[in-house]
């Protein structure tokens, strides 16, 4: 006898599973957890079972409609279970090929070679600006127009650099999708020139010798944390990037060899970098070591020695000394050194290598961290002596 709605509704759950049959292969399987619609049929001589869902989400009428559709498929030579499985597989493949899925897969693979900060920044750009608009679209179906529309929303907020960054990241994702067979074209190439150009900016820096002298004397007079004071003293001597300075570890520094060897993973160009330590830098480090030498970081944070100092510490100290961000920044020590050293005639190659600027040949960059090292050692010591001369007020100071 066919089932009725009251019979299905009133059927009791039981520890021992049992069936209520509706007819033509449809039945309700009941256990101690719930009620499940099932359909038994034969295909090519084999008995098969198809699941239709859970009652009451799937009503009796719904289950009968699904049974009737399945019976027609069987009558026409189709296998409902195989068709359902193929549909699920297609949906799974589609889910794995959305822009967001491909992007996260790409990010996971690439982030192993990035510093955590860059990895977090990259995924944040995508999550805030790209995924909400094209994340659920299969990457093969994303059009140049939809990508541009998403990126232009960033541009309209005035974040031009972020818009270009988002386009650059998207291009890398498309190229990864092409390599893995899920896209045919890098749409970022099609959209080249579609965004407002980034206005080139330079980190604020002081390059006038008299003003450099005033700055150095101001740094010497800093009355805050001794750790911060030490970082301020080293910043002009070493002119590394602020992130490289604050992440310095004692294990990387060899005071006897007078060098600081920074691992490739910490460097912007992903190549080992060697910083010769002048006598003045060694003096600062030896004075600091009794305070922080037992820990990992040369410049630990205020709240925990297990973490490096805040990325804003040096800039905040400069502000405290009266230097606005339009006058001087932590990054500005690099421009200061580069400008003066070039003016004094030091070899461009030695200066660029010491600044760890981009190496066109990445293989060469990996092995040439010691390139021009004798000249760089000489230059770094001469630079420190030049700065001492400025502080002492010697007008004829040269590097």
UniProtKB/TrEMBL annotation:
Belongs to the 'phage' integrase family. Residues 97-178 form the Core-binding (CB) domain. GO terms for biological process: DNA integration; DNA recombination. This is Integrase. Keywords: DNA integration, DNA recombination, DNA-binding. It comes from Nitrosospira lacus. Residues 202-385 form the Tyr recombinase domain. Gene3D superfamilies: 1.10.150.130, Integrase, DNA-binding domain, Intergrase catalytic core. Transmembrane segments: none annotated. InterPro entries: CB (IPR044068), DNA_brk_join_enz (IPR011010), Integrase-like_cat_sf (IPR013762), Integrase_catalytic (IPR002104), Integrase_DNA-bd_sf (IPR038488), Integrase_DNA_bind_dom (IPR025166), Integrase_recombinase_N (IPR010998), Phage_int_M (IPR053876). SUPFAM superfamilies: DNA breaking-rejoining enzymes (SSF56349). It comes from the Bacteria. One of its GO terms (molecular function) is DNA binding. Pfam families: Arm-DNA-bind_3, Phage_int_M, Phage_integrase. The keyword Hydrolase does not apply.
């Amino acid at each position: 006898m066919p089932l009725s709605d009251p019979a299905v509704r009133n059927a009791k759950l039981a520890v021992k599973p049992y069936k209520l049959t509706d007819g033509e292969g449809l039945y309700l399987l009941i256990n101690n957890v719930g009620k499940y619609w099932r359909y038994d049929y034969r295909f090519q001589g084999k008995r098969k079972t198809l699941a239709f869902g859970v009652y009451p989400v799937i009503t009796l009428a719904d289950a009968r409609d699904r049974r009737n559709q399945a019976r027609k498929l069987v009558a026409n030579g189709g296998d409902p279970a195989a068709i359902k499985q193929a549909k699920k597989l297609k949906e799974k493949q589609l889910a794995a090929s959305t822009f967001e899925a491909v992007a996260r897969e790409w990010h996971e693979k690439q982030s192993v070679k990035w510093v955590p900060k860059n990895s977090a920044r990259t995924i944040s750009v995508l999550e805030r600006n790209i995924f909400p608009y094209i994340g659920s679209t299969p990457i093969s179906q994303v059009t140049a127009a939809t990508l541009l529309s998403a990126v232009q929303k960033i541009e309209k907020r005035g974040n031009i650099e972020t818009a270009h960054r988002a386009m650059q990241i998207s291009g890398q994702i498309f190229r990864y999708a092409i390599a893995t067979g899920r896209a045919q074209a890098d749409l970022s190439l099609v959209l080249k020139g579609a965004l407002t150009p980034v206005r080139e900016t330079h980190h604020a820096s002081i390059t006038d010798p008299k003003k450099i002298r005033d700055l150095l004397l101001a740094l010497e007079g800093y009355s805050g944390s001794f750790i911060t004071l030490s970082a301020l003293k080293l910043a002009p001597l070493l002119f590394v990037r602020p992130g490289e300075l604050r992440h310095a570890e004692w294990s990387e520094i060899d005071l006897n060899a007078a060098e600081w060897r920074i691992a490739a993973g910490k460097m912007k160009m992903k190549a080992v970098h060697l910083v010769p330590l002048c006598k003045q830098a060694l003096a600062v480090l030896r004075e600091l070591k009794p305070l922080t030498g037992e820990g990992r970081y040369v410049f630990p944070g205020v709240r925990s020695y297990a973490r490096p100092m805040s990325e804003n510490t040096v800039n905040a100290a400069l502000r405290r000394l009266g230097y606005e961000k339009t006058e001087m920044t932590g990054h500005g020590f690099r421009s200061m050194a580069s400008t003066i050293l070039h003016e004094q005639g030091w070899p461009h190659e030695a200066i660029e290598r010491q600044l760890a600027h981009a190496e066109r040949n990445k293989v060469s960059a990996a092995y040439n961290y010691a390139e021009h090292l004798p000249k760089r050692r000489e230059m770094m010591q001469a630079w420190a002596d030049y700065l001492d001369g400025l502080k002492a007020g010697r007008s004829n100071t040269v590097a």
